[in-house]
Fold these 2 entries.
Entry 1:
Amino acid sequence: MTTLFQRLQSGLSRVLAKDWFRQLFWKMFLVIWLVSAIGMTSVFLYLSSRVDSVHRLEVLEARARGQAQLMLERYEENDPRWLREGRDHHRVRLWIYPQGSDQPITTWRREPPADAYVFNLTSDAGREYRVHVPRPPDGVFADRLLGRLFSLQMGLILVVSSLSGLLLSALVVRPIRQLSRHVHNLHRQQDLSLRADDRLSRRRDELGELSREFDQMAEYVETTLLNQQRLLQDVSHELRAPLARLQAAAGLAEQRLGDDNPLSRRINRECERLNGLIAEIVGYTRLQQADSNSDTEVFSVETLFAELAADVHFRQPDRPVQIAVQPPQLKLHLQRSLLQRALHNGIDNALRHTPETAALRISASLNNDTVEIRLRDRGPGVSPDLLPKLFEPFVRGSGGHGEGYGLGMSIAQRAIVQLGGELQAHNHPDEGLELIIRLPLSVLAN
Amino acid sequence: MQSKQILLVDDDVELCELLADYLRHEGFELESVNDAEAALARLAQGVPDLMVLDIMMPGQSGLELLQQMRPRFKLPVIMLTGRGDDIDRIIGLEMGADDYLAKPCNPRELLARIRAVLRRSQGSTASGSMPQHVLSMQGICLDPGLREVRVNDEVLELTSTEFNLLALLMQNAGQVLGKELLTERVLHRKLTAYDRAMDVHVSRVRQKLATAFGEECDLIKTVRGQGYQFVREEL
């Protein structure tokens, strides 16, 4: 019962959201409601006006017949008052003709209207007459129709058409919403192995077909991506073995040529480069396949930052590093290695692209709905045309020193997405590049 | 001086040959085997001075081998890990490897590690950093002669690296020892970037002490940005 209520509530809140008039639900509802309301109303009005006019003619005829009967009775008895009396109390104006004659006995009246209602009458004496009665004016009908618009029936029509509108649009919109939520999850969780809800894909209609087609597409994309990653990973792994041998052989050559031979130094340096590139590719592909539930742990953010700062100090002793954690005892519960990796890569980037004296600041704070970690350097920032491509693989900035393969930042972003957060980069208005990591509050320990 | 025996365990036959050549040239006695089974068989014949063990091997992995041989054979082990496999690296250390090296690596680096590990496994009294007499504080009794640690009269099982680390910390109780210094004195090598080996060893010692005391142990404090400190007994 409560779940039904909750579902109703969430459904309501969704259809009453901002820009509600743009929603398919309300569009469909409006069209169905309008069409059905107009259709039903016109049928109703037409039928009721037909019934109405027939009914009124019957009443008119009955009244006219009674009156004519009375008049004819007196007329046939030659009672001279028949006209006068009749005329005084006539509610209905009549023209009475003897059957087969064009001369009315009601001689004082002018011609009857051409569209008058005509009926035959037999008097008590057995003589046949023809009676003409003018029809009541149409205006009366229009008045009555207007009255019908506000009747109970009309209210029922409105209720029924609204209900049918709601029902039909819900029927169509609900599965579409389910499908779109599914697609959203697919994209959001980066998990292509998700499949549409069973109830959705079992449907035999077009929507069921759509979700089945969609699943097939997701499957295709998944296998393609997986194959590609596997290939990349396999290639990198396979490259490692010959590289290890190459390095060992270079070591042997070095032994023979002597330690300071520039050639062997050169070979060693190139080996290191290859090595680093392979390590990054392996790390990148591994991150894409990582199981999102593995190895979560509770840790203090301050300790993590301190470790990172120590690393910076080790690599560039002159670099000022500032740490700020608010609240200071902030603890997170997630895959520490992923966060560490993301921050490490961000720091690495800063160390490479900013002068050694440019300060680095790592800060964490708790907002209303996110844990926010900022990494800011005091360097020259990133050129505006490179900024949007910062997280793409193999995109490299110019002017950096040391070896970069353009994978660090995309690995960082992957890691953060894996943690359910987001990573953004922008140039700080004062100076330098600022990376902002936003993590959901669910990563807070306790 | 008799040359040291090194056992190389790696499935890459050619690499083994090259490394063996290199290390022989440096005065070591080299043997190489290519899988875990052969390694166990070789160990059964006699324990070499040091083992270099690759983690990634078909069949039984290096980690499994380490786990299997550990209670019986106490020789020092250097693990070769794929670069960037942080998890494997730490597990390797926790399971009793004495150091690790990312593979592929420069053979010169491997040589340096081998020398460092050998130096410290040969009774670290020679290095001069060992205390000369029994240290006893905070309920821990460390005997450098017997290389034994007792907590409340129960013997605490520590690897030789862990023993040296605890001895160094206790000897300098109350002082903060930097990671750089600890790495140099305990692991006999230079601290490298992103080197977590010392942190893992410290957390390992902490865990063992906590188990021995049966409660949370905060005798070894982390001093942020500086290093580790053994808490001095309040008098």
Entry 2:
Amino acid sequence: MNLFGGRTLRQKLALVLWGTALCAFASSGIALAVFQRLTLERRARAIMEPYADLVSVGTDAAVAFEDPVRAQEILDPLRANPEILAADIVLDDGRVLAHVGTRPDASGRVSAPGVYLGNQRVELVRNLQRGAMLHLTMSVGELRRQERQALWLFGAAVVALLAITLGQISVLQRTLVKPIAMLTQAAELVRSRGEYGQRVSASGTDEVARLGRSFNAMMQTVEERENDLRRLLAEQRVLEQALRESDRRKSEFLAVLSHELRNPLASIRTSIEVLPRSPPGSPIAARAWEIMKRQAVHLTRLVDDLLDVMRISRGKIELQRARVDLRDVVRSTCDDFRPHFERGTLQLRLEPMPDPVWIDADATRLAQVLGNLLHNAAKFTPAGGIVTVRVEASGGRAEVSVRDTGVGMEPDEIKRLFEPFAQAEQGLARTQGGLGLGLALSKGLVELHGGSIKARSEGRGRGSEFIVSLPLGPGAPRANAMRSLAP
Amino acid sequence: MAAAIALVVSAGFSATAGQDLVRRDPHEVEAAYIRNFARYVTWPVGALPAPGAPWCVGVLGRDSFVGVLERTLRGRAEQGRPFEVHRAASLWELPVCQIVFVGHDDPGRRRLALRALHGKPVLTVGDAPEFLRGGGMIQFVVGDTVQMSINLDQARAGSLQIQTKMLEVSREVLEGGIVKVMR
């Protein structure tokens, strides 16, 4: 039989300690009983001998001269001791010289000196002189009292041992069993639920504490790796998503690009077919030439934009920076675009700009950005609308704002406005044509200047506003700064 | 009340114990007492015979022991010395003894013998009623039991020391001319 099989650590420890305590109780109890038994005669002697000595010396002459009165005088004080049941002095011929206590039973009297143990009494027989004998009889009460005292002491020791055992179990419980149980529970939680955040308290320097610390350190490593793995997986997923998205957008862009390239080409082909059959100088021929020219310009612009976007994304554009007055750039660009607006019966307003706004910039690229914004404003504003351009300088920054009264945008549209090919995604809903490269390109160029671009709209049908913000340059103009702006 | 009962009971026991003792021949008891004297009385060194030599017990005049003394003392020894009993009609016929029983019935002879032994280290023992007054040292008083009275003055005159234990079991002690009744 395996006594320890299928028990918890705590039960095993308790079993060992209680077993030890029980063995200690039993062995010391047996030892006590044996000791009591072995020392019974000695203890009886220890009590009775002094009395016997006293009587022996005191009755010396009384025995010699057979003086019962004197002998009785010596014995009488023994009556005061309740433990002494009887005392007799018997002469050599069997006559009783003196006695106290219960009348001696002469027939059962022993005559050899020694200690005789009975159930109720202990008798001590001692030789006096001239063959006389002293018989001293004591009750076992005193001996029993001594035994009871020893028993009480033993009981107290047992209680103390019990308390010590309980204390030991409690100490072991606190220092050994509980930490191991916690460790086991934590390990099981890790195994069953994968809770790698499990830690155990491990203070102290013993092996259990060290085991706890090792466990914590291991869990720390595992948890970090788990977190790394999760993060990597999440990043991977985002990356995948982005790649898929990019792929999708590129496919759509390709579709749109094909479409956009095909339309002008179709117009040019039609014109080429019409031209040989039309007399030169006729209105039809002139119109064909006009169409071919416009579509070629359109195609060129399309391809230029594409090239610029590619260059920006690869960081291949270099700015020709110079000190310029932003007002000049804005004014000239607006002048360039004014016919475009007037064709569409739109109104282009340039707000008054009293002070020069100096910046350090590539005027050509800034004009390109502003042109894109004006082009978009014209494109998305219905006839009769107004486009307002404003230049401001404040807090170390210059701002150009282009506000229209056009179709406006929803907030989620604004968010994706500056991503490349954004317009393309609108797919079949597109009505205005174009690749949507303009804003992405503008954003790239403005950021190359250390500035930012943002869009605002109060919603569909409520117009839009685009604001370009650029850092202000040093105040003083330079003589050749304007020259780069010259056409 | 309890004390009174205890006293009565004690007295009763003592009486019975005493009655036990009277059944013996008083001469036997006296013989045993004479032997005890060799133990409880101390003689000056010069008064004792050579080591191992017997005690000399002399009996003067009437021998009321009739052999009891010899029987009692035979084979016994006290302080390494056996006993030897000598009998004589007059003191002059006795050898030098340590203990002399003066059994003269005639007071005149008795007084003469005691006067002759006065101042000598010889323990004089007798049972005559006026033995102590006549200059004897130890007198047996035979009643229900055999008791003794001691003339300490005479013993001291003979340079004999009598142990207190012996005085404790005596009936009367004569000391400094005054009789003290012990019991």
